[in-house]
Amino acid sequence: MRKMAEYAESSRQQMREAELPVTMRALRLTGSGLLFDARYPRPAASAGDAVVEVTLAGVCATDLALVDGYKGGYRGVLGHEFVGQVVEAPGQPEWLGQRVAGELNIGCGECSLCRRGLGKHCRQRESLGIVGRDGAFADYLRLPLANLHRVPDEVSDEQAVFVEPVAAALEILEQLHVAPSSKVVVLGAGRLGLLIAQVMALTGCELTLVGRNPDKLAIARGWGIEGIEAGQAHVTLGADAADIVIEATGAPSGFALGRELVRPGGTLVLKSTYAGESPPIDLSHIVVDEIRILGSRCGPFAPAIQLLASGRIRVHELISAEFPLVEAVAALRRASQPGVLKVLIRP
Amino acid sequence: MRKMAEYAESSRQQMREAELPVTMRALRLTGSGLLFDARYPRPAASAGDAVVEVTLAGVCATDLALVDGYKGGYRGVLGHEFVGQVVEAPGQPEWLGQRVAGELNIGCGECSLCRRGLGKHCRQRESLGIVGRDGAFADYLRLPLANLHRVPDEVSDEQAVFVEPVAAALEILEQLHVAPSSKVVVLGAGRLGLLIAQVMALTGCELTLVGRNPDKLAIARGWGIEGIEAGQAHVTLGADAADIVIEATGAPSGFALGRELVRPGGTLVLKSTYAGESPPIDLSHIVVDEIRILGSRCGPFAPAIQLLASGRIRVHELISAEFPLVEAVAALRRASQPGVLKVLIRP
């Protein structure tokens, strides 16, 4: 019986695979820049893997930084924020047809970091669309099944594409205790800053969002979050104003303002990564003021999905534009313009 | 009756004050360098203050950094590690004759930081022998009574002079949870590094002390603390080896080694302050590796006194030399030589 079931499954699998095309459309970052490729090889799944047909993908500041040379020369398909449907999962038919979001880091599974549960920091890791693995601005992508999270029906595709950045915002709460009485300042009202501000608002903390663009601050105000313009931050808030400052400007200049606003003994959370040099830092001042600096990157998917499903995190106001995959180059160009928030790409 | 008691006390006070000399000996940092002054004005106490006759004082790296120009030009009597006896305490006769150690920061008491209990970080603060207030390399010093801690008989003068640096080492445990299973590396086997290593050893953590001088590492080995030479640290420990690295080298180069040894998600504690420029720091790497950087300065006196009293922290091995106050300039010169640990100054 088992053999027959295996045979039937194997046939189904082969039939399904036969239906999938050999090539696909993809936005590649090459040595000479961005290239839309209409006939890029489609990935195939090995045991433990899935091939996901991408439904919708989001453009992130990291994509733009990679185009600018961050990480010193990633070459491959860009994109790591996505929602899609599992179309290939060898030996795991229960995954076929599932709507999923996916974590982007794939550790080697064998090094001391992976063995200590720090796989997302594995030195040999691949990261979807960032390091060593083709990403989501394509018809299909490949990820380990272990990286996938089912997306419930209450979460639309337009919401689900935000699971990865919401998880990145939640990572701050994984790392740091933010108390209801904490005074928190978020620097940067961009794609990530607005999500971080929403996550912080859930704690009940005394929250101020600092941004440059009045339209983006107005979005935050619509969520009941106080926003002030960057030029006014120092005057309005004053030095030593915040217990916690979260730097999400995406620019080196954010550090100095954050350093000025955080009180002695307070925490400066860094969420920005960028190509190019870091600002100078006076370490003796960090010691004397007993400042905590906390780097923060990818976060937990399950609570992100739950907060989107329950409506506690809102994302529709953040969608600036949607492009078809064939116009992906234009999508990234749009995303890099000032004032633009999330740009979506639909295969 | 109350009036009579007040009168009697007032008389005693006047008599005692009359016994104190008008001038004293002191080691001053002036615009043209160190100067031993045999006739410097003795401080007098106001209400809430005490005058302490210094029994023994210790030379710290901060004293040497101040001579090198750290803090941009402190002028006054140096020294902030001391034990002494209260000889003047207006209206508080119960303090007279008490043997005390003293916390070095004096906040304004009125600013928002002081009102939030962050007086040691007050922007208008004075710090004994560091900012705006004459220090302990003198016959007498003046401090608020609120800064003083009684030293029990079980703690000798030679131990008590270490209360301030032991408290500074304990500050790390005030700020950071060090678990018995944590892997901890202390960089720097100097005055402070050896005390920090002892404090860390109390947690039961897996501890390695990294230093340059075999004699200092041998002292640590005598306390059951494993030490390795700085040149071997990378080879012996390997990258990403430590959950927590404590940088106490007193030199800018310590940061890079600490950054290399601390695992992703780990904590790099900074204890060194120094004159001159900080090393460059790649903030994007801090974000991607989710590193915590934690500045750490002065700490709690009461547990420091208790750990010295119970013998859990040992300090006699750390005393390299003792000089009379009249030879204080020579004492600082000795303290700045390689391989020298704590130099004491006895008025």
Quick summary of this structure?
With 347 residues, chain A is an alpha/beta fold. Chain A contains twelve helices and 19 strands.
Quickly list its features.
347 residues; seven-stranded mixed sheet; 29% helix
Written description of the protein model:
2 copies of one chain form a homodimer. In chain A, strand 13 (206-211), helix 7 (214-222) and strand 14 (227-229) form a beta-alpha-beta unit. Chain A contains 12 helices and 19 strands. The two termini of chain A are 41 Å apart. The first copy, chain A, has 347 residues and is α/β, with parallel strands linked by helices. The first copy, chain A, is 29% helix and 29% strand. In chain A, strands 3, 5, 6, 10, 11, 18 and 19 form a 7-stranded mixed sheet that branches. Chain A has helices spanning 2-19, 61-67, 112-115, 157-160, 163-175, 191-201, 214-222, 233-237, 254-261, 283-288, 301-309, 328-335, and strands at 23-30, 33-41, 49-58, 76-77, 81-88, 99-102, 105-106, 126-128, 132-133, 140-144, 148-150, 183-187, 206-211, 227-229, 242-247, 262-270, 292-295, 319-324, 342-346. The interface between A and B is large, with 42 and 42 residues.
Structural topology:
2 copies of one chain form a homodimer.
Chain A: H1 2-19, E1 23-30, E2 33-41, E3 49-58, H2 61-67, E4 76-77, E5 81-88, E6 99-102, E7 105-106, H3 112-115, E8 126-128, E9 132-133, E10 140-144, E11 148-150, H4 157-160, H5 163-175, E12 183-187, H6 191-201, E13 206-211, H7 214-222, E14 227-229, H8 233-237, E15 242-247, H9 254-261, E16 262-270, H10 283-288, E17 292-295, H11 301-309, E18 319-324, H12 328-335, E19 342-346
Parallel strand pairs in A: 8-9, 12-13, 12-15, 13-14, 15-16, 16-17, 18-19
Antiparallel strand pairs in A: 1-2, 1-4, 3-5, 3-10, 3-19, 5-6, 6-11, 7-8
